[in-house]
Amino acid sequence: MQRFQLNMLRFIKKYLMNDETSCLSFKKGVLFRLDCKFSFYFINANSKGVITLKFYKNLFHPKISEVERGSYITIGTFDGVHKGHQQLISTVAREGKKNNCTTIAVTFDPLPKVFFGNTESQSIRLTSSYTRAERIALLGMDMLIEYTFDQNFSRLSADDFIDKILVGLNPKKLFIGKDFKFGYKGSGDFAFLKQAGMKFRFETERLEFINLDNERISSTRVRNAIRNRDVKLATQLMGKQHEISGRIIRMMNNVKVFFVPDGDVMLPPPGEYKVSIGSYNNKHFTKARILDTTKFIEVTLDKAMSSSFFKDKVILGFLDSVTAITTEETNIIVNYSGFL
Fold it and tell me: How far is CA 114 from CA 18, 78, 90, 119, 148, in A?
């Protein structure tokens, strides 16, 4: 079985990495099995057994056998999959399974606020698409459908959203957050869904926010915590460390390496941090430095450990802030172009 999985991973890496499957991840012994052009299975073996999430991309007017008995659905960006998201998604997973219905999370990439330019040039993303998928899978959902949020999608009316996306999923019940809006210019809301439910025979339930220290848990609050170097608070809000996947691409000496992040996940400000690095099953605890002037993170790692991780995809998790780095300290010219 292990040899079959290894060969399957090699096949997927070599032949199936395309735009539709760009979220493929191979960390933590994860195996994705491609099902058709626009879907694949996310399979994760952990102490609870095998967890499977079927992933679809841009599924309009869906006609899939999994929803014949109906579906329980939640919709949102779910960036960071923080504790508020976890409560919402776990409720859908629990209620759907109790009623023998397929459970579905509908989400978007890129984040709508990024598409509309309601953000600074610096990345604000808390999780990559595949990390988001993994965290949603671990909460017990059966299916994830991700829509590309582009110019055409942004102009989709609330009515079209229901007709082209929701109706084909045979919804029995929708679960949304208190501030959820959808459709062109946010024209769809809880009241709109309640009205549509009368026509298409589905219920809609709106869940309240959850708080930490009398303040709402939100992706914005997580981002603010990271910007303020308060990675401990970010961990409390998400229930997990702020994590970045990437690769070790260069050994500086016997105790330091360069870690290059994949994608555009948000980095904390310049400074020194306590971190974990490695796979989920093989973590090493150390320190890392982020400098404004570089595209890599400097990690303290002995030669034996860095050799075992070299060029493999690893996860860098932020545990705590140690010291800030001043602007003067970041005025260092580092020629790293030959390393990439």
Answer: 23, 14, 27, 6, 12
